[in-house]
Amino acid sequence: MTTESASVRTQILATIKTWPVITALVILGVIVLLAILAPWLSPFDPTAINPASRLRPPSADHWLGTDAMGRDAYSRALYGARISLVVGLGVTICSIAIGIFLGLMAGFFRTADAIIMRLMDGLMAIPGILLAIALVSLIGASLYTVLIAIMVPEIPRVVRLVRSVVLKVSNEPYIEAAISLGTRTPTLLWRHFIPNTIAPLTVQGTYIFAAAVLTEATLSFLGAGLPLDIPSWGNMMAQGRMYFQIKPYLVLFPGFFLAVTLLSVNILGDAFRDALDPRMVKRG
Amino acid sequence: MYAYIARRLITTLPVMLLVALIVFFMLRLAPGDPAALVAGDEATTEQLELIRQSMGLDKPIYIQFMIWLGNLVRGDLGVSFLSGTSVYDMIKGRISPTLIICAATISVSILVAVPLGIIAAWRQGGWTDRGVMAFSVLGFSVPNFIIGYVLIYFVSLKLGWLPVQGYKPPSAGLVPFLKSITLPVLVLSTVYVALIARITRSSVIEVMGEDFIRTARAKGLREHLVFLRHGLRNAAIPIITIIGIGVAALIGGVVVTESVFNLPGLGRLVVEAVLARDFPVVQGLILLFSFTYIIINLVVDILYTVFDPRIRY
Questions:
Q1: Are A263 and B141 inside 8 Å of each other by CB?
Q2: Three-state secondary structure along A184-243?
Q3: Residue of B nearest to A20 (CA)
Q4: Which residues of A touch B270 (CB under 8 A)?
Q5: Structure pTM?
Q6: How many domains does chain A divide into?
Q7: What is the mean pLDDT of each run of 10 residues along chain B (313 residues)?
Q8: A170 Cα to chain B: minimum distance (Å)
Q9: In chain B, where are the structural domains located?
């Protein structure tokens, strides 16, 4: 069980119903919609090379212009949204799943705790981008390997979070009551421990999502990310780099979409964090 | 207090060892035979075997790790697959631009962000506060390479005030040097300032609401003294914590910024080595960056005792 009441719920909603948050939700909604409908909304095939119309500026045919190989930038941007969202969601779900498992292990079993937490400390000491770049260079670049490479640096934070929740909740009287009633461990985990992790993990999840999208774009931008034929915003910027001085929009358009997506996700994350702040619960 | 410092130093060593272990095993993940990578396509089986023996690959894995660790401690980081130069020399040759830019970024960021955060806390809820918070969310949401390109577009291409890319060492003259590092430092500082200003603001707000501040005011102490003598010292801990943690973001930022501005530093070396699959160099750089990060956080931990004498465990 968790502690909540009706007045707290109204307070939470009040924190969320502010202008920045509503705008962020709308923007994210639009991006998700565009990503899902990309195959129907793109006027051109994003991988169709057309040397005859290279480096065209934005026009009625090509809303965002064309890139160095004549591919339509607007179609690529739409598909790029798909990639960013898939990577973001994939990394978030996997890292939270693995993090919950490891965190529960660490919280429950002393020996597992020592090993797992030392490993997490070691992983957290290596700056995330470096770890991701090194992993991609070692296991090769494809959608799955990039997902794994981005996921690994994010897991330690989830593990720490879950472990601290487990340690805190273990001392609650209702756990002692449940154990004395003979509740089996799996039921205990499912009905009592995991619900207490949902609030902090939601907040953490939004930050992981933003970090994942950012890391994928950074990796692709550096040339160490997704293969170049997959249209991602980072790849578009990487390929547009050499033409920046004559056609800056090749870099600036995908950059704009990336910035707006990340901004919206971070605003939402902050709103969740403020809404779920334990201090507000105490006031209610 | 010296016992505390000694204890913190001792707990850092296992983490460093663990990082070394992780890096060592990570490199074993690479498909293919490291000896074959070094030997090249034309090597005979005998040559391959000789190379394997010289690299110690025929020994059991824990012996290999011990040998590798021993070399590490002596400063021998191996030899680049690509150029044959020692990794140590490669790092030495390219460390100064990175060091200069990081030092400049950290100084500028602290000097700008802490006062900004304090002002935002002072005028909480007002326009300055909202402006600082908006800027800070923008600062760590918008990727730094995008900020870089936007700045290049306006400042270098449209206005022509600063060079588009490239690095001029201090020996080439003070003004060219400063011009070449202005944009990179600006870009790197953005994330750092965003992080520090936020934490400064929330930390100051939290501390100024404490009871002992009320007591200090009740005693008749003037407001600015209340803040400087009581507020700031207590607010400092989260601030220096985030400065330490922000170094990780700084390292990531350095890698990207050096690529955007074409600076001949360690950040770009990492990218080049990764793309060329030059594993000894990648390994050496990851170890260098991680150890630097660990040491900086150790310094932060020790600084805690300066600000809060209660922390001496």
A1: yes
A2: CHHHHHHHHHHHHHHHHHHHHHHHHHHHHHHHHHHHHHHCCCCCCCCCCHHHHHHHHHHH
A3: B134
A4: 130, 133
A5: 0.86
A6: 1
A7: 80 86 79 65 74 72 81 80 82 90 93 90 84 87 88 84 82 84 91 90 87 86 82 85 87 90 90 85 89 88 79 63
A8: 25
A9: 2-73, 94-312
